[in-house]
Amino acid sequence: MLSERRLQVLRAIVQDYVGTEEPVGSKALTERHSLGVSPATVRNDMAALEDEGYIAQPHTSAGRIPTDKGYRLFVDKLAGVKPMTAPERRAIQNFLDGAVDLDDVVARTVRLLAQLTRQVAVVQYPSLTRSTVRHVELLSLAPARVMLVLITDTGRVEQRMVDCPAPFGEASLADLRARLNSRVAGRRFTDVPQLVEDLPEGFDMEDRGTVSTVLSTLLETLVEENEERLMIGGTANLTRFGHDFPLTIRPVLEALEEQVVLLKLLGEAKDSGMTVRIGHENAHEGLNSTSVVSVGYGSGGEAVAKLGVVGPTRMDYPGTMGAVRAVARYVGQILAES
């Protein structure tokens, strides 16, 4: 275990390197920070930190920079989450409150996160499998054609056309709509198949085929496999950090184009707590020079998806973690109220 003083030295190195982009020397540390010891002692502490792999010497520079291991210790032990100021919180709330639908909420969240952190923002759409049904609407388009509209508790709206095996009157459609909503409104998607299993039996024989067709379409909508959607923004922010990437920014940009990679980066929504993956902790090789800060968001205290940012390992971790957490909290409130 590192001594408290060496932890303080590591914290000072991380803070200075993030702020100045320059390798940090012992003289600069003692001038900028109240470490309470001589430059010689700081040099000894830096040598020990280097021996243990927490800092490294780039090229022939006299200064040192944090390694992935050093950033990891900084995040785990030394970095508190920097709270947003009252004006920042109001600005977040005002910006997100103007959203008109779920697509707009996600688009605004991406834009806001990218602006606040000046990094790449990634927001996952709420997953259908973790949602509950708010309402099912059935609209007659023709005697044997119906539009099914599924509205979720997260504000997601799915529309499907249903070609019925026989004409279906307005009265029968209203009856099906009422019976269907009485069973599924407010229920988890995973519960719906059982809840509607015997529904066709309550209708006249000539209507049962149409009722079964509508229910089949509803159940297909609930279990769609291609439901995982993402929105990404602020990729241009990476160009500000060109020198933070060892050879080129290209592998990072290529990795960010792969949706499967991004979904893995964000992790499972059920792990709703703050996650920080640093450098080589990211399994995808193209992202070994980046860090990912992500957190779950949702309504009613349950995460339905994740959001986060991708940036260089030399990032302001306390500020980034604070921004990501604050935005997630406000998005969750909007979903709960929508």
Overview of the molecule:
With 338 residues, the protein is α+β, with helices and mostly antiparallel strands. It has helices at 4-20, 26-32, 39-51, 68-78, 86-97, 102-117, 170-184, 192-196, 205-222, 250-256, 259-266, 317-337; strands at residues 55-56, 65-66, 120-124, 133-142, 145-152, 157-163, 230-233, 275-278, 290-297, 305-312. Strand 1 (55-56) and strand 2 form a beta hairpin. Helix 1 crosses helix 4 (68-78) and helix 2 (26-32) packs across helix 3 (39-51). The radius of gyration is 26 Å and the shape is elongated. The two termini are 49 Å apart. The mean pLDDT is 86.
Task: Categorize the overall geometry.
Answer: elongated
The termini sit apart by 49 Å
Largest pleated sheet: 5 strands, antiparallel
- Strand tally is 10
The radius of gyration over CA amounts to 26 Å
User: How would you classify the helix and strand content by structural class?
Assistant: alpha+beta
Kindly report the average pLDDT value. 86
Share of helical residues: 40-55%
Provide the β-strand percentage band: 15-25%
Strand order of the largest sheet: 7-3-10-9-8
Question: What letter string, H or E per element, gives the SSE order?
Answer: HHHEEHHHEEEEHHHEHHEEEH
Model regions low in confidence, pLDDT < 50 over at least 5 residues: none
Oligomeric state as shown: single chain
| Number of alpha- plus pi-helical segments | 12
